[in-house]
Amino acid sequence: MPKVLVSDPIDQAGIDILSQVAQVDVNTGLSAEELVKIIPDYDALMIRSGTQVTKEIIEAGNLLKIIGRAGVGVDNVDVPAATRKGIVVVNSPEGNTIAAAEHAIAMMLSMSRHIPEANASVKSGKWERNRFVGVEVYKKTLGIVGLGKIGSHLAAAAKAMGMKLLAYDPFISTERAEQLGCRLVELDLLMRESDYITLHIPKTPETLHLINADVLSKMKPTARIINCARGGIIDEAALAEAIESGKIAGAALDVYEHEPLEADSPLRSVGQKIVLTPHLGASTAEAQVNVAIDVAEQIRDVLLGLPARSAVNIPGIYPDSIEKLKPYLQLAETLGNLVSQLAGGRVDYLNVQLQGELANNQSQPVVVAALKGLLSQALRERVNYVNASIEAKERGIRVVETRDASIRDYTGSLHLMAKGTLGEHTVTGAVLGESEIRITSVDDFPVNVSPTHHMLFTLHRDMPGIIGKIGSQLGSFNVNIASMQVGRKIVRGDAVMVLSLDDPLPEGILAEILKVPGIRDAYTVNL
Hints:
Elements: E1 3-6, H1 12-18, E2 23-26, H2 32-38, E3 44-47, H3 55-60, E4 66-69, H4 79-84, E5 88-90, H5 97-112, H6 115-123, E6 141-145, H7 149-160, E7 164-168, H8 174-179, E8 183-184, H9 187-193, E9 196-199, H10 213-216, E10 224-227, H11 236-244, E11 250-253, E12 274-276, H12 285-303, H13 319-342, E13 347-356, H14 364-379, H15 388-394, E14 398-404, E15 412-420, E16 423-432, E17 436-442, E18 445-449, E19 454-461, H16 466-476, E20 481-488, E21 494-501, H17 509-513, E22 519-526
Helix pairs in contact: 1-12, 5-7, 13-14, 14-15
């Protein structure tokens, strides 16, 4: 019988599931040295956030088939080491979906009916019915920023409450939004028309202080905002000022830029127009049970020879196959990320063409890696090699795989074509030597550049002075150029310029570049 080690406290429901197929040993509080000594006897390891599963522990686990994290993050697991050893790593990305969505609804209703203040008033011996006249959410417009799993569930609940739904999500199709009963709009319109706004997006450099003073100023004076997603998405000082000055009616927050909430935070002095809770979105008994059950079921399935549904690495591929495909997986993910940014984020169609010798290899991991890159701008760490296909399907992205072994520009190359609401773009890349990734064409213009963190792409007329003018523009903003290459098909026709930059482009520079005569389009890309 297989043996499972549970090294962190989990709900009994998870242990009961594991006991159906394995001997389960619960041994918590182990040191790294103790874990290295006993892990060779186990086929599976189930953890939460307490156990650090290092490379040494993984190397010692000669029988390990699966590591299960009862929660969302896997920062405490050396996933690359597990992948190289052929060990599946799973988590529970949906375990707190219901809890987080319900908490957002609870916050909306508490704020609307003054429940915290009314509760405190009654408990203090008062009876102030006239003081706590609230508002109904029925027939009000709810703007949902982010239509992932939590946003989608909240949309269904709000629709059942009779609310009208707007949504902003640059990475979801109009068809998918309509299925959820939402009208997909730009953020500016959502802020202007919504009576309530709820945030369900990850915190990224792009979403940091997304809701700032300028954005808040576009809201109705009767509107209210809710954040049960991530702290830092809202500029808290700007929010406090907007509420105190009457620019908006109120807010309800469960997450903060600095946690615990600082004693001198301006949010603490706003008064009854704001509801604050201490990051309780996932804190339900059911959510804790759900993550234990979810991960235990996946461990059980893998021990029975069945696939896991929420693996964060590449399941079902032997380590030698992983090593062979590894540079192409990195290439596919890079090209997917690139074409997503060139297409403006929202993509409805993706064609993945394997070329040359790559066309003779297993294609599914390459296609999934391309999807992971395509969705990474929207989902960040929440997208992985298993759920990328599911996430793409949920967003209405049609994926087509093609092969052409006759294309021999390189030993093996990969070509992606993406269609979205802002047009069609193509990128091609290849692996040189054992692992050097190159971008070899952009929109069918030949180039040969290595991907870098900060890049600028332009479409322009091939004419004297263009390169110098762009260089001067960047120099005026103190942006240093690391390398530059131009790809063209005919002399003085259209051309693509690719600039690798040492610095991110500051706000406003793209608009200045587009004013340069001959520049037809420009894109900033961060890889």
